[in-house]
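re: ur question from earlier - yeah i can do the single chain one, its not a big deal. heres the input i used so u can compare w yours
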Amino acid sequence: MSAVVEPTSVAEVIAPPAPPAVVDVEALLAPIPGDNPVGENLQYSGLYDEIREARRSDDNLEQGDWQHEVKTAGWPKVVELATGALATRTKDLQVCAWLVEALVELYGFAGMRDGLKVMRGLHEQYWDCLLYTSDAADD
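and the output i got, formated as tokens:
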């Protein structure tokens, strides 16, 4: 028989403790060292290609005679690349959007919470000089 844990306050019943943070939001929002607090535009760097490839996954369809290994998205790699870039190289909204996507895939609502905190923080702190690049090719 398992013991029933009674809440110690009304607040615990209404709002149970939130899951721990999945990324360091403050570190991702810190200005990039140097003259430009939003860093560099990485749209044409290898980083964008690396993240796109990590996000890519093959459809799990019947392959017939042309069988090959199905590629699955590497969400941990997306988080690694995006957090590294946002903390040290750029405050790019596209990179942040990819981070949010990966955090949701890996951590569900806790990932969405932290990813959107980063997105909101970028808007609030760097609105006048934010880097944004359209990812129309992925739409």
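Residues 29 and 122 are 6 Å apart (CA to CA). not sure if urs matches, ping me
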